[in-house]
Amino acid sequence: MAALLEVEHLRIEFPTRRGTLVAVDDVSFSIDEGEVLGVVGESGAGKSLTGTAIIGLLEPPGRVAAGEIRLMGRRIDDLPYEEIRKIRGKQIGAVFQDPLTSLNPLYSVGRQLIETIQTHTDLSPTQARTRALELLQEVGIPAAERRVDHYPHQFSGGMRQRVVIALALCVNPKLVIADEPTTALDVSIQAQIIALLKRLCRDHGTAIMLITHDMGVIAETADRVAVMYAGRIAEIGPVRSVIKEAKHPYSHGLMGSIPKINDTKERLDQIEGSMPRLTEIPPGCAFNPRCPHVFERCRVERPELLDAGATRASCWLYAHG
Amino acid sequence: MAESPRPLVKVSGLARYFDVSAPWLNRVLDGQPRLILRAVDGLDFEISKGETLALVGESGCGKSTVARLVVGLYRPSTGSIVFDGVDMAGLGGRAEMAPIRRRLQMIFQDPYASLNPRWRVSAIVSEPIRAFRLIEGESKIVERVGQLLRQVGLSPVDGEKYPHEFSGGQRQRISIARALSSQPEFLVCDEPTSALDVSVQAQILNLMKDLQRQLGLTYLFISHNLAVVRHIADRVGVMYLGRLAEIGPKTTLFTLPRHPYTRMLLDTIPDLDMTGCKRTPVAGEVPNPINPPSGCAFHPRCPFANDRCKTERPEPKANETGSITACHAVEEGRPPAGPLPAAAA
Amino acid sequence: MKTWRNLKDLIRRFAGSDVFFSFKRSPTVVAAFLLTLIFLVAAVFAPWIVPHNTYDVASLNLMDARLPPAWIEGGRATYLLGTDEQGRDVFSTIILGSRVSLLVGFASVILALTLGVALGLIAGYVGGVTDTVIMRVADVKLSFPAILIVLLIDGVARGVMPRDLHDKAAVYVIVLAIGFSAWIQYARTVRGLTLVEKNKEYVQAARVIGLHPILIMFRHVLPNVTGPVLVIATLGLGIAVLTESTLSFLGVGVPPTEPSLGTLIRIGNNFLFSGEWWMAIFPGIFLVLLVLSVNLLGDWLRDALNPKLR
Predict the structure, then answer these.
(1) Residue A292 domain-assigned?
(2) Residues of B with CB below 8 A from C211's CB?
C-alpha cells in the first residue's frame, strides 16, 4: 500500500531583490496512515514552511519551486485554489501554534464547527450540531452542551486549542498538520493536549505531522522523526533511534544539548556557532562549518539521505563505497 | 550548599498587587468592584552568595514579577528585599540607589527586544559603565568592552555592529556582556533561554555556568522549564499563583517532591526518555489570578484536597528532607508516597 | 575622523537599504524628489538666482507694470512670466515668495515637531495624570479647525502689536500659529509609539541601571520613534506651506512688501478677470507643484518605512 502522504524533492523559494532565498531544499519524506511523524528543527530550519506547503497555505512571494506533494497518490501541490481548499477541509486538518488566531472571534465555537462540517458533508443543521457536540466532548471540553454557544474569548488557552483540534477533526481528515500545537501552552496543559492528540490518532487512524522545536513533545508522541537543518532533512528515522543513537552529527549534538530532567551532568553538550541564515548557506553540507567530523567532501558536495543503520542521515560519514 | 551567615539577598513577605480595574467611570456606571491582581502574594526566600536560586511555575504564577521586584523595576506593595544587609525600600533617591544598582543586573527573555536596535553593540555594552562612571577615558572603556565581548564568546570587532546583525544566541551574549559590564555580584535572569533554540540554549546555559564559576556570581533564575532549572540551579522554588508552593535544594526537590503541585509538574514535563510511555496528565488549568481559589490556591486541582484546604491558607513549613512546603496535606501526611493517583483527563 | 567614518557607514547602509531600493524603483518619487530639490535650492539661493530684485522698490518701474509673459505679444524677454501691477517680475516674485513660504513651512514644522515629540514622549513615558492632561489638551485643540486657531493667534497678535511692528513680526506670528496648531499629530503618534517602546526590555534594562527617565526618553525611546515622525514632518511641510498660503491669501499672512506665494495669488486674484491672468496662475501652478512633490515624497516615505507594505 502506498504511503498516505509523499513529499518528494520539495523546494520552496522566496524571490527577493537580493536574489532567491531557498528556504526548503530537496526535502523528501512520507507519512503512512495513522502514523505520527515529528518534524524538529531550530527556527528558520524550514519545518513550518514544509507544513504550510502541504496544506497549500504558502504565502506569496513564497512558492513551491520544485518537487511534488502527493496525498494518497494524487498530486496536490499544483492544484487550483478551489481544489486545494476542498482537500484542506476534508482530508488535511490543521492545528496551529496560537489557538486564538485560528478561531474567528466573532462567531461562537459551535457555529464555526457547524459551518465547517456543513461545508464538507451533506449533514442537516441539526445533525451537524449533534456532530459538533460530539466533537467537543471528544476533545474533552467539559459541559459541551453549554460551551458550544460560547465565543472563543470565553475559553482558556488550553480549551481553545482543544476547540481548534475539534475543528481540524470535523470531517475525519486522513492527516492533521500540527504546527507547534503546544508551544503557547503551559506544561501541564501541554501534556493534556499531547495526550489528546495521541488518543485521537489512535481512535481514528489519523496521521499527524507534528511540527515542533520541542524534542520532548516528539519523544512522547511521534513514531518517526525528521530532523531539519537549514531547509534540509538532516536525519529521519524511528524516534527511539534518533534520540538514543542519532547518526547525523547535527541531530547527535542537538540531543546532547537538551537538558534532561534525570541527567545531572555539569555541562550540556553544545554545538558551536549557530544555524546559517538562508542567505549564507555554505556549499556542500549545510552543517559543515559547525561539524566536528567535517572532511573535504563535506565542503564541496552535498550529501543525500543515506542509510545509517536504523535511520537515514544526509551525511558523508555514511557513504559506503 | 552551606548557608553563609548573611544571605546576599533576603526577601521576606514580598507582595505586589496590581490594580487592574476598569477606568473609574466604567466602574461607576457598570457597578463593578475594584479588581486587584495579586501577582506576588507573600514570598519569603534567601539567596546565598554564589548560589543559583531558580523560580519555576506556569504562566501567571508571578515569577517574572518577582524578578522585576528584586531589581527594583517595581516597588513592592508590602514586604522587604534586603540586598547584602541593605533594605532596598529604605533607599530614597537615585544617588542612594546607585551603589546597590551597580551590584545587581538583569538578563531578559527576548533577545530581540532587550537591545536597543538603534545603538551599536559597543554603546549598549558600555552603557552601565558610563552610567555608573566606572571607568574614565574613552580608550579604556573601549578596551573594557572588547574584554567583555571576548568573555561572552564574541569578538571585540563585534562592538562596531548593530544588534540586527546578530542571531538570537549572539544577542543574548551581548545582553550578558552588558549585564556584566558594571561588575555585578547578583544577576536576575528572567527566562534567559526560553526564546532560544535548544542548541543555542545549551551554549548560553554553559556560558552562564562558566561565568558564575569565574566571577563568583549569584543568580536568581526565572524559568518555566524544569529541565533547564534542574541543570542550572542549586536551589529551586516552585511558585503557584503568587505564592511559593515548595522551595528546597535541587536534588531534594527533584527526587523527593512533597507538594502535590511540584509532583504534578515533574510528572507532566515531556522528556526524551519518555518515548512512547503512557502518562496520565493532571486535569485542570491555572485559575485566574484576579480571582484565585480560597484557601490553598491549588485545591481545585489537587487530588488530596479536603475541606481544610478550601478554607485555610497553608503556611510554609520545613520538611525533614530539607525543603519547605506550604501544604496542609503534606503537613498532615495525607498524600501517599509514590506516584500521583490518576486524575481524570 | 570618527564622524567621517560614521558618515561613510551611514551612506553605505542607506545605499543598501530597502528604502533606497524602493526609491530607485519609482520614477514618480525620483521626479518628486528632484523637483523638491530644485525648489529648495532655488529658495535658498533666491537672491543670487532671481533676474530682478523685487524687494528693491527703487528698481521698480511702473512703466513695466502688467506686462504679459515673454512669449505673448507685448511681453518682454527680461520678464519671462510677465510683471504685476507694480512692475515686479512675476518669475522673481515667485522664487522669492517660495523662499518665504518654505521658510514659514520649515520653521513651523520644526516648532510643531519639537513640541509634539517632547510632549508625546513625556505623555507616553510618564503616563498617569501627566498623560491625561497632555492628551486632553490635544483633544480639545483637535476639536477646532487648525485655520481657526491660526486666525485667532494672528488676530491677538494684530490686536496687541502696532501695525508696523506686526508687519515685521508677521512671519514669526504665522510660524508660531501654524506650529501650535500642528503639534498634536506628532504628540499622538509619538505617544503611541512610546507606549510600545517603553515596555520593551531594552528600556527596562536602562531602568535597571537607574538611568534618569529624561535620558531614557531621549537616548533610548526617541531614536526608535523617528521613522513615523519623519513621515509626518514631510507631509506636514506640505500642509504648512498650504496653510501659510491660505492665510496670506486671506490677507492675514505675511505683508505684500515681502510676499509669499499665497500673497502673490491674492494680489493676482484681483487682476484675474481683467485679463492679467499670469499674476495669479503662475504662483498657483508653482504652489501646486511644490506641495504635490513634497506630499508625494511623504507618501512614499510612509510606505517605504512601513514594514507591513514592503
Answers:
(1) yes
(2) 127, 131
